[in-house]
Amino acid sequence: MVEEEEFEFAEDLEAILHLTPEVQLAIEQVFPSQDPLDRADFNAVEYINTLFPTEQSLANIDDVVNKIRLKIRRLDDNIRTVVRGQTNVGQDGRQALEEAQIAIQQLFGKIKDIKDKAEKSEQMVKEITRDIKQLDHAKRHLTTSITTLNHLHMLAGGVDSLEAMTRKRQYGEVANLLQGVVNVLEHFHKYMGIPQIRQLSERVKAAQSELGTQILADFEEAFPSQGTKRPGGPSNVLRDACLVANVLDPRIKQEIIKKFIRQHLSEYLVLFQENQDVAWLDKIDRRYAWIKRQLLDYEEKYGRMFPEEWCMTERIAVEFCHITRVELAKVMRTRAKEIEVKLLLFAIQRTTNFEGLLAKRFTGCTLTDTPGQKRPESPLDPTNPFLEDEPGEDVGTDKDEDLAKTPSEPRKPKAPDNPFHGIVSKCFEPHLYVYIESQDKNLGELIDRFVADFRAQGPPKAGTGEGGAVLPSCADLFVYYKKCMVQCSQLSTGEPMIALTTIFQKFLREYAWKILSGNLPKSSSNSGGLTISSLLKEKEGSEAAKFTVDELCLICSILSTAEYCLATTQQLEEKLKEKVDKVLVERINLTGEMDTFSTVISNSIQLLVQDLDAACDPALTAMSKMPWQSVEHVGDQSPYVTSIIMHIKQNVPIIRDNLASTRKYFTQFCIKFTNSFIPKFINHLFRCKPISMVGAEQCLWLNWRASFKCLS
Question: Cα 193 vs. chain centroid, distance in angstroms?
Answer without folding.
Answer: 58
